[in-house]
Specification:
alpha/beta, TIM Barrel, 14 helices, 8 strands, binds S-adenosyl-L-homocysteine
Length: 363
């Protein structure tokens, strides 16, 4: 799809036209990745962060956050919970925490991968910008996937909201290429409605998803956090994209159309905005993944990247029941197994034993 067509869809306000977009995205989702929804256990292993991102409540300068770091035993227990709930993937996410040293994380990965209960789990990491050596060590230890959003393809805006560490460059796009070369299933994404982001920026973000040949694409609305500089940013210009559920759903749908065989989550930020239909809205407009939160309750409210009710969804067992019922209610089933991205399987030629090709593409 050309940039001007993408921009036209992003600006589309006519309900009947949007119904066409939703239908096309849902149909592409069905043809390319199937009807099953993959559930990933999300474990927020640390909220320490050395960075100064203008949008994120975990930024180093925010002294109001009570910081925590889960022990390896706690992380392993959460991975066991994921298996107990029938999930095939555990996602380990954190602020950019230097105390999560490369050897420590590698050992946790090895323990998960060699555990009697957890050995079949796919392990996804989302630990920020790390060196090539660290990323290689974790891949060797058994990590399968890595998530690193480029947040916005507008370089000036990115620099403004995501300042580099002193004396270094911010090179998220380069790191994504390294991840891919190391053999990771590679995920990235953006925030929708960042102050200063235009419709053209969003269209270029979509083009960047294609260019990077991503396996997984996560996106959600930007949610202002009162203790961050961006929440007090100057009033928006006329071309400002809204940070609402509708705009995020348009981007989900267009992402499915331009990158049809990727895994796309219905993200927590979407559900935070709209707890009633946040998940269903995205799942019926292109998304095929949900990431239930398995962070121990005593830590969960401190992973305050943006404001939302972090206790309201109940514990893991309650949420698991609810989300499975909600998925069934929209006529979809929940998957078992790792749920690798069909795009990754197609591009690498890896089809695991017992795995059926999806979307008519046979490796
Ligand atoms: N430290 C890791 C993980 C960050 S949290 C990293 O930087 O990659 C994961 C994602 O949450 C971020 O990439 C960002 O897109 C999103 N996020 C952070 N603050 C947000 C906010 N205020 N509103 C919406 N999304 C936000």
């Amino acid at each position: 799809m050309k940039l001007d067509k993408l921009i036209a869809w992003l600006r589309e306000a006519d309900a009947a036209s949007l119904e066409t977009l939703w239908r096309e995205a849902d149909s592409a989702r069905d043809r390319h990745v199937g009807g099953q929804v993959h559930l990933r256990g999300l474990v927020e292993i640390s909220n320490h962060c050395r960075r100064s991102c203008a949008y994120c409540g975990l930024r180093h300068a925010n002294a109001k956050v009570r910081r925590y770091r889960m022990s390896p035993a706690e992380i392993l227990a959460a991975a066991k919970t994921a298996v107990g709930l029938g999930y095939g993937t555990v996602v380990l996410q954190a602020g950019e925490d230097e105390a999560l040293t490369a050897p420590l994380v590698a050992e946790v990965i090895r323990q998960i991968k060699s555990g009697a209960h957890t050995g079949n789990l796919a392990v996804t990491l989302s630990l920020g910008e790390r060196t090539e050596d660290e990323l290689a060590l974790w891949k060797d230890a058994g990590a399968d996937r890595y998530l690193l959003r480029f947040e916005t393809s507008n370089k000036t805006l990115f620099k403004r909201i995501h300042p580099p560490l002193p004396g270094r460059n911010c090179r998220r796009i380069d790191i994504l290429r390294v991840l891919r070369d190391l053999g990771y299933e590679t995920g990235s994404g953006i925030m929708v409605g960042i102050p200063g982001q235009t419709y053209e920026d969003l269209a270029r973000d979509l083009a960047t998803f294609v260019e990077l040949d991503l396996d997984m694409i996560g996106l959600g609305p930007y949610v202002p956090h009162a203790d961050t500089p961006l929440a007090n940013a100057a009033p928006a210009e006329k071309d400002q994209t809204p940070n609402d559920g509708l705009m995020a759903c348009k981007v989900v749908a267009l992402t499915r159309l331009v990158c049809p065989d990727t895994n796309i989550p219905a993200t927590t930020a979407l559900s935070a905005l709209d707890p009633i239909s946040g998940y269903e809205g995205a799942l019926t407009r292109g998304a095929n993944v949900v990431m239930p939160n398995l962070t121990p309750t005593r830590y969960r409210r401190f992973y305050d990247i943006y404001p939302m009710d972090r206790g309201g969804c109940g514990g893991p067992v309650t949420f698991n029941k609810k989300i499975r019922a909600r998925i069934a209610a929209i006529g979809r089933t929940t998957a078992t197994g790792r749920g690798d991205s069909p795009h990754y399987l197609n591009r690498t030629g890896v089809l695991r034993v017992g795995q059926r090709p999806v979307g008519g593409v046979v490796a």
